[in-house]
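Researcher: Please predict.
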Amino acid sequence: MSERSVAYFCMEYGLDSDFKIYAGGLGILSGDTLKAAKERNDNIIGIGVLWQEGYTEQVIEDGKAVDRSIKNKYDFLEETGIEFDVEVNGEEIRCISYRVTDFDNKPLYLIDTDTEENNEWARNLTMRLYGGSWEEQIIQKILFAKAGLKLVDELDFEPDIYHMSETDSVFVGLELLQKELDTWDLDRALKEVQEVVRFTTHTPISAGNPKYNYSLLHKVGYPEKIPYQTLEKIADKPFNTTLAGLRLSKRANAVSKRHLKTVKDMWSRYMKTEPIVGVTNGIHIPTWMSEKIKRAEEREDLWEAHQEHKKELSDHMESDIDMDKPLLGFAKRMPEYKRPDLIFHDMNKFEEIKNEINIVFSGKAHPDYRESKERVEKIVGYSERFDSVHWIENYSMEDAEKLVKGCDVWLSCPVPPKEACSTSVMKAAVNGVLNLSTLDGWWWEACNHGENGWQYGDGKTFEERGEQDKKDAQELYRVIEEELIPAYGDRDRWLDMMDSSIKTVKDSYTAKKMLAEYYLKVWSK
């Protein structure tokens, strides 16, 4: 337990599969953070949004990825009785709030504008996570900051630290700055804000480091008190959300050792990077580790527990997979840099190995990214063409739980150095599922090739993307043929690797350990 109090701001939280206010890994991480904080008895509260329709329900219809919106109802939400108005885009918006503690987590407080006192436009602001136009999304983020800070005040919670998780939360820092400018000049106001603000950057890809034209900010009437020439000193031009987060914080962090190097390479030319530290993400062991695996004391107990999970996954997939062949799993969001289709890069080579393995895919494409949907559709097509390829529709936390326990191998294909961490790999590894990945994200620091999993590509990068894919695919096929398949045929060797994989995560990559590092490296004075 640490005495410093933290208000943790994040746009999404993954606490349970049926509580659909998350999109992917960022939300699962924030959910694991609140669960670990409960275990440690840390003085932390989460601040988020009650997204009525969540992210997206994505199904396959006639071979096409189709998005559906479903308004969700939850019976476990506790009304706080706290209601207030905030002004956004020139309108007064009524906010109501709820408290969530049902998932063995520290309190999560959620903002909601879906109330009869608001017009339809205002009610829809908390309808869908990451939905709408750029203008609508920036209004959502401003609302989140204004209402979130107001809610913290109304709760009489006095945080030592306001933590902004990802760029969606940077308007929290700007709102605090606007308050301080009522009293101080810019330099002093900025120092006052930096003393209490911390920031996590979660990805090096451009979509996670958005930039906004000042004309868009002007259109939505933001910020009210900071002149644009002043704002440019903080966020450059156009408005760079990551630079704003870094410059508004006394200390910021990357989410793995490899990511720390990438972040410093990206931002050192803009500012001093000494305040950026590395805290590798961790997972909440009670949520993600199988009780059967945890209780397995003998080697054969471990194998038997794993085979039971593999059969449960096979039933969940509604597929009769061959239990004597290694089952590879790829399950995560489907952006281009994660290369979910890399194993199909050379179809002649895939034809050579397809009868030696099974592989299951799951994941969601961003609703607005047609290219990402085409990638999903391509993989679905392969699942219809090849008996050894399988697809699980409408990926959820429930699917993830089955997959990280029931696969034999967890396949990851990120283009180095674009993966920040990838906690899905840890969730698989702690259940004895062996990782097979390029050397990127967490695997860059955790891989012990041939002992707790495998790497391919040696972390090499190529200027030409086509060359990168070709070389990585060649190495992927080689490792599968020459190392993975023979190892699977050697039960003693495979069990040794499973045991090493489990210890890798349990010893060093838990959410409890991650929080201890946050208090030491990020949230300290």
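Model: The radius of gyration is 23 Å.
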